[in-house]
Amino acid sequence: MERIKLGKNGTEISKMGLGTWAIGGGPAWNGDLDKSVCVDTIHRAVELGINLIDTAPGYNFGKSEKIVGEALEGLNREDVVVETKFGLVWDWKGTPFNKVGDRQLYKNLSPDSIKTEIGASLQRLGTDYVDIYMSHWQSLEPYYTPIAETMKTLMDLKEQGVIRAIGAANVTADDVKEYLAYGELDIIQAKYNLLNRDAEADLFELCRSNNIVLQVYSPLEQGLLTGGFKKGYVPTGARANKKWWQPGNLDRVVDMLDGWKPLCAKYNCSLSTLSLAWVVKQADFISVLSGCTSPSQVDENVGALNIELSQEDADKMRSDADALGM
């Protein structure tokens, strides 16, 4: 599988990574999944050349990290680039974020919180280092921590060998510039797909000019672009309040996907792989996170990297999405 160089430390990550939010289960995903299937999914991803596994403590309160840790026991640790996050806590004070089930998450990017979080993550993952350590969401009042303070803590952890690369998720262009002013930023994570292309406005050029990998999450809009949902579907859990899952919007997306069936026939692929292939085509600094929950989904999604989508067809897909009134 094609890989992208990550920062200055020589690490290379696959053009497709495995995202494990859904694997973590919990209220956001309407319950837990079969853990053995989750572990098999991670192993299958590595077998097919995916070397980046993305997780976070905030994915069902550490459950996702624990599952990734169990999967790592059956793998050569040096063959896997483990990415986890910090900044969303449930047992520290912080700025209120989402409530998941009956438990509240808070934003806290303070040095003390980060040092506590990295220790807990290492324990859950069963490893003594993290390849990529990434801020999950950015700091806000009333528990605001300047990026300079957060970055100093991260650079110290990197010097100690506890983490090997630094990332930031859900950032603005100004955030990225501030991270770069105080240390080394190797990768950023942003939502990006045919229905959500805000990252093109300012993050693309920043990544290109500063040798930063753009890691794309939700490339299938939490499954909507798979074509697996019919008109009238009522979303629950993490999808319930998302724009494109609302009545009317979802129906128009379903019609758009129906219009892409000739393209699926042309490239001998599913709607999922077609949509993923479109994302991959947009820039050579993109690594796309695929949130698979079964080995068969990994097999299907990896196929996107073998599709040579023509510019004409890519433009048609963009135009069709524009017509939805983004």
Key structural traits:
326 residues, alpha/beta, TIM Barrel, 8-stranded parallel β-barrel, 3-stranded antiparallel β-sheet, 37% helix, 17% strand, globular
What does this protein look like?
With 326 residues, the protein is of the alpha/beta class. It has one domain (3-322): Alpha-Beta Barrel (TIM Barrel). It is 37% helix and 17% strand. The chain contains 11 helices and 13 strands. It has helices at 35-47, 63-72, 111-125, 147-160, 173-182, 199-210, 249-258, 261-267, 271-281, 295-302, 311-322; strands spanning 3-6, 11-14, 16-19, 52-54, 81-86, 88-89, 95-100, 103-107, 132-135, 166-169, 187-191, 213-217, 286-290. Strand 1 (3-6) and strand 2 form a beta hairpin. Helix 1 (35-47) crosses helix 2 (63-72), helix 1 (35-47) runs parallel beside helix 10 and helix 4 (147-160) packs across helix 5. The radius of gyration is 19 Å and the shape is globular. The two termini are 33 Å apart. The model has no long low-confidence stretch (mean pLDDT 95).
